[in-house]
Amino acid sequence: MNAAEQLRIGLIGTGRWGSRYLATIGRLWPESEVMVSDTAGRGGPGPPGPVRWPTPAALVASARVDGIIVASPASTHEPVVTGILNRGIPVLVEKPLTADLLGTLRLCSHARRSGAPMLVGHQHLRAPAYQELRRLIRGRAIKEIRCVAGGIGPIRADCNALWDYGPHDLAMVLDLVRAVPMTVQHAECRVRGPGGEEWTADLRAGATAVRLELSNTAEEKTHRLSVTTADGGSLVYDDFAGHRLRVDGVPVEVSDELPLDRQVRQFVALVRGAPGGKDPDELDLAVAIAQVLRDIGDAAVLSSRSRR
To answer: Which InterPro entries is this protein grouped with (predicted)?
Structure first.
């Protein structure tokens, strides 16, 4: 590996997603140096390769890194990422960007002022099957979008099922409808035991009807986005199907590159200052997602009160 390919990456968060990022970097750039820390005060699990730092603050303040990936709990994102932006270090933040709208607004405003590059982990936007779906409906009116996502857990102390599962689906929906304002027509949350939630929401974006069904109590892991066009077309992106894209019921062959691989490659391009590495709409999308999540939550509260 030549010097131009050497990477020094910080990783904050050593849970399920932090471990995936660590494995992805190690597979794509075997000679990279990864510095790891954890918001719970752990240096991080895994093989002896990563360099451990006692706290995220110590890593951010003192480590010589090209960029930092934040995969810690959502409630820690704002203070951790603020410190990274203050140092002008490029950062990739796992979704949700923060745990509420106000935190998202503050963090995006700070990112704009600092000028430091910030990428948000809406990895399904980078999925080859989704990108092909998006290409195929370009210029066609969309009648309906239906998103179904869920699984058994996770149940998080700082992030409900709406904010945990919703960002991925809303990122794709908002990407498809673009600048059309989105309004919530109805939303409901049914509680299924401690921490268990089933969310449904009906939204409107101009002439496009949007339906979200999200659950952390689903028996089978599911993530599917279905699009019906005004001319009768049917396109389905299913992240857990053998063929991730079907058009009018027919499987479409696409690249098998993992969305997370593409996301990390985009971040590395951002770190290296490559053309096209930075998406100017990234911060606007993060804010738009948080606004819709807030509106769905508010609508669900009103729906709950009306049923009493």
So the answer is: Gfo/Idh/MocA-like_OxRdtase_N (IPR000683), Gfo/Idh/MocA_Oxidoreductases (IPR051450), NAD(P)-bd_dom_sf (IPR036291)
